Structure formats: C-alpha cells, structure tokens
Amino acid sequence: MKFGTLPLGDAEGAISVHALRTAGVELRKGSHLDRATLDRLAAGGVADIVAVRLEPGDVGEDEAAGAIAAAISGPHARPDPAFTGRANIRAAEAGVLVVDRAGVDALNAIDEAVTLATLPAFAHVSPGQMIATVKIIPFAVEAAAMEGARAVCRPLIEIAPYRLRRVAVISTLLPGLAEKVIAKTLRTIAARLEAAGATIAFERRVAHDEASLAAVLTQVHEAGAELAIVFGASAIADRRDVVPAAIAAAGGVVEHFGMPVDPGNLLLLARLRDMSVLGAPGCARSPKENGFDWVLRRLLAGLTVTRQDVMGLGVGGLLMEIPSRPQPRETAPVTGRGAVVVLAAGRGTRMPHAHKLTAHVDGAPLIRRAVAAALASKARPVIVVTGHEADKVRAALAGLDVVFAHNPDFAEGLSTSLRAGIAALPEEVDRVVVMLADMPKVEAGLIDRLAGAIDPPAGALIAVPVSDGRRGNPVAWGRPLFGELTALTGDVGARHLIAAYGEAVVEIAVEGEGAFLDIDTREELEALEIHEIAARADVDAGPALDGMQAEDA
C-alpha cells in the first residue's frame, strides 16, 4: 500500500486519507477517487490530495475485517457486515462471554494493521450486545500480514448461554437477623437470576447449625435444584465453620474457600454431587457488582469453576475501595470527634394544616425537644438542616447553640438534606449522628452510645439502635462513608447503605420507643401530648399515693 500526497492528475483510483470540504465538494475519509470527483476538487482550487493506493496482494479494510471477524466468531457469536474497516461481533444469546486470551494476543501481535478488542472474559452479555470488534487501522492489510492473521484465526470468542434454571436460596438464622434483611437479599438474588433466565425454585430458612443446614441441602438437591446459594446468618470464617461443615456432612466437597476479589473475599465454592453450592459473602446481599457475581455467572452458564480459576481473579479483583475495610492495627488512634446533624427541612405533608416541626408538645416545639437532646450529648457541633419554612424552624430554636445549614433543594427529597448536613461538617469530625427532627423521645445517652460505637480503624462505620431485631433511628456514620451519603439522590435515606455495608454495622441494643417513635400526623402529635401530660401527672401524684398506701397499711 502506497501512502503520500498525490497531484490530482495522478490520484484517480486512489483512496482519500482525510475528509475534505471545499466549494461544492464534501469528500469523506476512505472515499475512492474517481475522475468526476477529482475534477470538482480541481474546480474548487485543490491541487493535490493525501491518498493511498493499494498494491497487488493487499486486502481492503472491509474485506479483511469481515474475514477475520467471521473466522474468530465461535458458537452464539455473530459478526456484523464490515464497514469502514470495522466488523463488530454481537451475542446471539444471553450468557457469559468466553474468550481465548492467548489467541486474541496472538492475533493482535501479527501486525499493527489488525486489531481485535473484546469485552472482559466471562462478562454477562445480552442478545444483540456487542462483544468484540475487529478494526483494520489503515485502509488495507498487506498480503503477508493477512496470511499471518489467517494462520492464527480460529474461534476465539463465543457465548456460553445460561442454562441453569432451578436455584435454591437457603438462609441460616440467628437471633437478631431481621426479616427485612432476608427479604432484601431474596429480591437482590432474584434480580440477578432473572438476568440469566433462572429463578429461585426453592427458598429455605434454617437454624444456623451444621445438622439443620446439611438436611436442607440434601432436600433441595433431591428436589432438583441445580445450584444452591447459602446465605449464612454469620459470615464464614473458616473451612470448619457451619456452612462448609454442613456441606461436608451432606456428602459434598468444599472446592475452595476465599477469593482474591474485593468485595467478595469470603466466597465459598463447593459441590454436592451434581449440584454446585455457593457460600455467599455478605456483599452478595447488595445489588452492587462484586466477586460473587463473577462466579455465579459462570455457574449459571454451566461452566466449570475450579480452584485455579478463583485464584486467578486477583488482577483486576479490586472492584472498588471498601470504606468498611478495617485499617491496619498500627493505625494511629482516632483523634477526631463526633457531631450531630438534625434533618429539619421536610414539608411534613401528612400534617398539611400546621408546620409539624414547630407545633408544640407539652409547651415546647417538637423540633426543640429533638435538638435539646442532641445538645445534651457530648457531640459538637449540632447542625440543623433547614428547608421548608426555615424561618419558623430558626425561631423555634432561638437561643440554642446550633449551626444552621440551609438546603434550598429540600423539595427534591431527603438525600439533598443529607448532603447539606454532611457538607457543613468541620474537617476534624470523623463521625456523625444523623437525627430526624420529628423524633421527640431520642435521648442524649443514645446519641453518645451510637457515636462511641464508631471505630473506623476497626471497620465499624455504622451504628444503629436495635430492639427485637428492629432497627431504628438515629444512625451514626463514620467519615469513610460520608462520600456515599453525599452521593445519594432522590427522596431516599441511607437504609440501603446499611445493607450494603452489613459487616461495618454495629447494633446498639435499646429499650423503649425513643428510637422508633416519629410524629407524622396531627393524631400522633395529640396522642404524644396526652401521653406526656399523663406521665407527668403520675410522677407528681407519686408521693401522695405512696403516703396513702402507707397510711392504709
């Protein structure tokens, strides 16, 4: 292939290298130059042109790209017709992309004119999705290079269609594991399976002990499950732990425990006769992609996953920075301090005839009670996020030592108030307790307990109050998660982050209703006031009643 600048008189039959626009002529890159085109260029004042001319044996870009794409496309991979030196290859079915890495490298090493790019090996693909592209960089491939490419061309990429359909999901149970955690896990797994055409055919819940789990594994296998996924109530810590021990007791074999992918380290790969078994790491409860997905997809496609396969996932296995990852033990002691953010920007739409937060309960505005509890704690500063009727909120808190942070976007939802509150925190604050302004029975002691439970060097980044397996408010957050909080959008809080970072959660046992009572309606406000008045009356009457009882005695 000859390349260079040609006088227009010598350019007939050549190929234009660059796009060119001049009076009355628009020439595209790669256009074949005929006499009529050259005459129009000359009339427009063009004297010469950068062009290439093919030589005997050269293979044009489209012909070369099409031939190579057809040769390397294996089962369920379909090449498109080549255009401008490119031939895209698409998936004909949903499944997992299987790539011959050595073959791809060999093809790309033949000549710089020939390139092949693919999606990552074992990626999930949908029908019609582009999985690879062959691109010829110049306008032709020389004969010798084309022969070299043909010599290494064989099916290099194919799709392994998803074929497993019946999946068992088993959850082991311990006291304190909330029903909503299991429900969220099932929804997340169902969505993963749906993308592969599979379903949860069997859903079982069993005590977190070896015998019970072994019995259920045997049961679902005999019922026809092709894959079993076990979510332990407690993370697998050793090959001798409950989940692997139960698999062995059922007659199965643990093939590998541990994974050089983060998140996903604690994955367990096993087999019970012809049924694969996955001991799921905690991150599999989250919809975010993690190492669990990498192994699950292969199994659903019927591919064998070996110990060597798992151990080879380390390069590229750091999927994201994990805020909950404990830091080295030699990390310096925490020197930061805690703060409180009180969210008071909402419109209170369920109490339309009054501004809820400034409505009085037993002589004081509702929000003043919440803020007073925050000020009675050790945390500083106390930041109040305002929005709807901000002036009324400020007036209700007159004289209190608080910092106000206004959220002009409060109508867009709770996430905007979280962002405003986090943005207002001083740099030295390493933890924050996020309070709702309509929770009048939260006490200062609870705020201090929550803030004190945060220990970033140990990976404890979230602290929540819990009673009988139910989680309440407020919630304390460590600084490594501040970025996640500010990334939230819409009218949602941060509950899904608690699920996503389950291993970073510290549960603080509480009694009473303080962490669970919020006021949304006029009826709830009136009921609270009646309760407060009655409680005060009981206290005032206490000494007199004691005296009467003593006198009667």
Automatic annotation (TrEMBL):
Protein name: Molybdopterin-binding/glycosyltransferase family 2 protein
The keyword Flavoprotein belongs to this UniProt entry's keyword annotation: no
Domain of life per record: Bacteria
SMART domains registered for this protein in UniProt: MoCF_biosynth
One matching Pfam family: NTP_transf_3
Alphabetic keyword roster: Magnesium
MoaB/Mog domain ranges (all copies): 168-301
PANTHER family registered for this protein in UniProt: MOLYBDENUM COFACTOR CYTIDYLYLTRANSFERASE
